[in-house]
TrEMBL record:
<feature type="transmembrane region" description="Helical">
    <location>
        <begin position="114"/>
        <end position="135"/>
    </location>
</feature>
<feature type="transmembrane region" description="Helical">
    <location>
        <begin position="27"/>
        <end position="51"/>
    </location>
</feature>
<dbReference type="Pfam" id="PF03806">
    <property type="entry name" value="ABG_transport"/>
</dbReference>
<feature type="transmembrane region" description="Helical">
    <location>
        <begin position="214"/>
        <end position="232"/>
    </location>
</feature>
<keyword id="KW-0812">Transmembrane</keyword>
<feature type="transmembrane region" description="Helical">
    <location>
        <begin position="83"/>
        <end position="102"/>
    </location>
</feature>
<feature type="transmembrane region" description="Helical">
    <location>
        <begin position="409"/>
        <end position="427"/>
    </location>
</feature>
<feature type="transmembrane region" description="Helical">
    <location>
        <begin position="263"/>
        <end position="281"/>
    </location>
</feature>
<protein>
    <submittedName>
        <fullName>Aminobenzoyl-glutamate transport protein</fullName>
    </submittedName>
</protein>
<keyword id="KW-1133">Transmembrane helix</keyword>
<feature type="transmembrane region" description="Helical">
    <location>
        <begin position="439"/>
        <end position="458"/>
    </location>
</feature>
<feature type="transmembrane region" description="Helical">
    <location>
        <begin position="301"/>
        <end position="322"/>
    </location>
</feature>
<keyword id="KW-0472">Membrane</keyword>
<dbReference type="InterPro" id="IPR004697">
    <property type="entry name" value="AbgT"/>
</dbReference>
<feature type="transmembrane region" description="Helical">
    <location>
        <begin position="470"/>
        <end position="495"/>
    </location>
</feature>
<feature type="transmembrane region" description="Helical">
    <location>
        <begin position="381"/>
        <end position="402"/>
    </location>
</feature>
<feature type="transmembrane region" description="Helical">
    <location>
        <begin position="343"/>
        <end position="361"/>
    </location>
</feature>
């Protein structure tokens, strides 16, 4: 009976993959999306669609017509900025410079070959999912570091690389809100929650701390790691089937003396690099600390991309020099150039995606959609758990169209935080519910900025991978994470456990 149910699930995912892959190439699709935004903006503008902006009382938001004279002027004058300002572009390219040296010098492949002899196979998936969840400490760097490394690691073990990519992507993106430590997301969302709560109860808002969801998110790390491991091993990898392109076990066990010496040198270089970076961060006088010595939202968090570049580059250089894969500065330049040459398809895709995202934001269509969704929930008249679940469904739906967690919360918090407070639920609970809905749907929307780069990584192993393939692969994670996380929140709600330090479930004046 269980096998039959699994067969139905597998057939459903196959159908989703087939339908999705009938869509045009992602580059073409983003150009089509951009064109549709232009046409729809003209229609909605002519229809006079407008909403009141809850962030600015009395301000009316209308749809900007991109077929108007001003709109056409905007499309022509902003095209370059839309491309260069596309958020993942610089992050990906700069990070790949360092990863490219570590990869082409042979460091990464040698590390993997050594790793597979020391890490128990049964713990690999859990380790990868856990690392993905924890990578939110490095903002968005996990997308461009862990997802390709997950694929390479699985391939080295003879497992399907797309399963490794999926496990890492699930941890990085669907588990984005969970962490054992506070991340930059906590003060980012927390400040908006405080501001929204102040409109209903100024005194209570002053008691809210930015770590309001900390306890809940700590427990979430371990729960999601278990769920992600199960989904990878029992659903995703069996569906993908066998993979024949990995490094064989006999090859893995053979590390040459110079490779072992190179690994030792790279390890020492990594430790020295970390020590030097620590001098910039740990002491109170550290130049990468915040103005009052704070770490969260400090220059360190704002400079994680060059930090990652350095942490890959230095050990990669040392390894290459020791193994004589790098003998002159020309070798370094060539290896970096070769890495950038492989990113050509992504750069083209970034241009198309950048235009679409910019057009969608410029027309106000995303904001209006979010506000309409908020109004819908308010009109249902739901209370209690049904209200919270409805709120999460709408927040997740909106996330399919607007990728930025802070942008959505800036729109939704002024509506839902006071509304929930009026019904007896704390701002801390409302924010936790939002974070769950926002995270779990990241991995199934092509409009998430890093969705494109994940497809590019996947196509290194299977040229036929398209939007449908990735969505079908990630959908089990999205569903499983959503169900388990919602159950966790309901249990938290029923037991009345604090979500964080001094952060109750229920609101009382």
């Amino acid at each position: 009976m269980i096998q039959q149910r699994r067969s139905v699930v597998q057939r459903s995912l196959d159908a989703i993959e087939q339908m999705g892959n009938k869509l045009p190439h992602p580059i073409t699709l983003f150009f089509i999306f951009a064109f549709l935004v232009v046409i729809i903006s003209a229609l909605f503008s002519a229809m006079g669609i407008m909403v009141e902006d809850p962030r600015n009382e009395g301000e009316i938001l209308t749809v900007k017509n991109l077929l108007s004279a001003d709109g056409i002027q905007y499309m022509f004058t902003s095209a370059v900025d839309n491309f260069t300002g596309f958020a993942p572009l610089g992050t990906v390219l700069v990070t790949m410079l360092g990863i490219g040296i570590a990869e082409r010098s042979g460091l990464i492949s040698t590390m993997l070959r050594g790793l597979v002899t020391s890490v128990p196979r049964q713990l690999l998936t859990a380790t990868l999912v856990f690392a993905g969840i924890m990578s939110s400490m490095a903002a968005d760097a996990g997308y461009v570091v862990l997802t390709p490394l997950g694929a390479v690691l699985f391939a080295a073990l003879g497992r399907h690389p797309l399963a490794g990519l999926a496990a890492a992507f699930a941890g990085v993106s669907a588990g984005y809100s969970a962490n054992l430590l506070l991340t930059s997301l906590d003060p980012l969302l927390g400040s908006l929650t405080q501001q929204a709560a102040a409109t209903y109860d100024q005194a209570y808002a002053e008691t809210i701390n930015l770590a309001m969801n900390y306890y809940f998110m700590i427990v979430s790390v371990f729960v999601l790691t278990l769920v992600g491991t199960y989904v990878t091993d029992k659903i995703v990898e069996p569906r993908l089937g066998s993979y024949d392109g990995g490094i064989q076990a006999e090859e893995v066990n053979k590390l040459k003396p110079e490779e072992k010496k190179g690994l030792i040198g790279a390890g020492i270089a990594f430790i020295v690099t970390c020590a030097v970076l620590a001098l910039l961060i740990v002491p109170e006088w550290g130049p990468l600390r915040g103005p009052e010595g704070e770490i969260v939202n400090s220059p360190f968090f704002m400079s994680l991309v060059p930090v990652i570049l350095i942490m890959f580059l230095v050990p990669g250089l040392v390894y290459g020099i020791i193994t004589k894969n790098i003998t002159t500065d020309k070798d370094v330049a060539d290896q970096m150039s070769d890495t950038m040459a492989t990113m050509g398809a992504y750069i083209v895709l970034a241009f198309a995606a950048g235009q679409f995202v910019a057009y969608f934001n410029e027309t106000n269509m995303g904001i209006i959609l979010a506000i309409r969704g908020a109004e819908f929930i308010e009109s249902t008249g739901f209370t209690g758990i049904p209200l919270i679940l409805t709120f999460m469904v709408v927040a997740g739906f909106i996330n399919l169209f607007i990728g930025s967690a802070s942008a959505k919360w800036a729109i939704m918090a002024p509506v839902f935080v006071p509304m929930m407070m009026h019904l007896g639920y704390s701002p801390e609970l409302t924010q936790a519910a939002y974070r769950i809905a926002d995270s779990t749907t990241n991995i199934i929307t092509p409009l998430m900025p890093y969705f494109a780069i994940v497809i590019a990584f996947a196509q290194k192993y299977d040229k036929k991978v398209g939007i449908g393939t990735l969505i079908a692969t990630m959908l089990p994670y999205s569903i499983a994470f959503s169900i388990v996380w919602v159950v966790m929140l309901v249990i938290w709600l029923l037991l009345g456990i604090d979500l964080g330090p001094g952060s109750p479930i229920h609101y009382t004046r």
